[in-house]
């Protein structure tokens, strides 16, 4: 079964990218369905951007196969570029051109002309609040304004699939929230989206995510499912000497991880321990704790259990 026969927009098997002896992406398998926001979550250097560049046809895989919108990549990369949009992590438009000039240039690149070109430029300027900025040089815009312009150019040709590489890394929290609302508007309009991020709260907004570490996929699925299946319960502790408690617990069998969040210590306890609260209350180091309670897991807990210390 191929992506052309189904509602799958991206299908990759055994994807590998090596730079000399370094495996930036190492055996990545992916299946991304139409009509969703699919996120790559992981720290800098984990292979997110390299994977995305292979999916867009900008990098040739060392090993493995990729099919995007029914087209083989990189063989059909030229045909694919008219069906996808790509917003890079770094602002890549022309700072010495105005908003309108950048949009006109990109419209030409995508083959838009005549009345259709004018219509689409007006539509994206209106949607992304750029009409009043159309004569401003891109190099003199704020981070949030540049972000809106970059998104406007990426969707100018109405792509079926949009790739966004850490699109909110340089903007304030309010701009981030507004940007994500715009992404869900695009999903409602029929666009599928692949996004990379290292923000946990952003990853929770995705329909599905892949957690990457050292070029390998450690987990894959809907955030709520990953939280339910992560193999640990979460307990928070309040009280004095939280740093000492943490140090002792990290050497305790059955403890996956422990991290302080403000006035609370967040502890991940293996699901094999039936009553994690009683287990922690019975530990001598927690004597004097004012509160020990089980809490809802979050995506950071999933990340910890799937990578790094949680896998040691």
TrEMBL record:
Q: Name one Pfam family in it.
A: ABC_tran
Record-stated family: Belongs to the ABC transporter superfamily.
Q: Where is the ABC transporter domain?
A: 10-239
* Protein name in the entry: ABC transporter ATP-binding protein
Keywords (A to Z) from UniProt: ATP-binding, Nucleotide-binding
UniProt-listed Gene3D superfamilies:
P-loop containing nucleotide triphosphate hydrolases
GO molecular function terms listed in the Swiss-Prot or TrEMBL record? ATP binding
């Amino acid at each position: 079964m191929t992506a052309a026969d189904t509602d799958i927009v991206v299908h990759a098997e055994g994807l590998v990218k090596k730079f000399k002896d370094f495996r930036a992406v190492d055996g990545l398998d992916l299946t991304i369905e139409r009509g969703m926001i699919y996120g790559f979550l992981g720290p800098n250097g984990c292979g997110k951007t390299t994977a995305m560049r292979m999916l867009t046809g900008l990098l040739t895989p060392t090993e493995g196969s990729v099919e995007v919108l029914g087209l083989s990549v990189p063989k059909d990369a030229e045909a694919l570029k008219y069906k996808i949009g790509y917003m890079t992590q770094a602002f890549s438009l022309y700072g010495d051109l105005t908003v309108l000039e950048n949009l006109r240039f990109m419209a030409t690149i995508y083959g838009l002309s005549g009345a259709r070109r004018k219509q689409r430029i007006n539509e994206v300027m209106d949607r992304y609040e750029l009409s009043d900025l159309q004569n401003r040089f891109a190099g003199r815009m704020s981070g949030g304004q540049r972000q809106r312009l970059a998104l406007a150019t990426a969707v100018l040709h109405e792509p079926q699939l949009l790739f966004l590489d850490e699109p909110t890394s340089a903007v304030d929290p309010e701009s981030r929230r507004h940007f994500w609302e715009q992404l869900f508007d695009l999903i409602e309009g029929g666009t599928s989206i692949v996004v990379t991020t290292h923000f946990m709260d952003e990853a929770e907004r995705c329909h599905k995510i892949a957690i990457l570490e050292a070029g390998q996929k450690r987990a894959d699925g809907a955030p709520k499912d990953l939280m339910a299946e992560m193999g640990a319960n979460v307990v928070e502790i309040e009280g004095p000497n939280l740093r000492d408690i943490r140090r002792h617990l990290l050497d305790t069998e059955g403890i996956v991880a422990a991290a302080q969040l403000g006035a609370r210590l967040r502890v991940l306890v293996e699901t094999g321990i039936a009553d994690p609260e009683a287990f922690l209350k019975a530990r001598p180091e927690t004597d004097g704790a004012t509160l020990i309670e089980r809490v809802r897991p979050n995506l950071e807990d999933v990340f910890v259990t799937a990578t790094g210390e949680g896998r040691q």
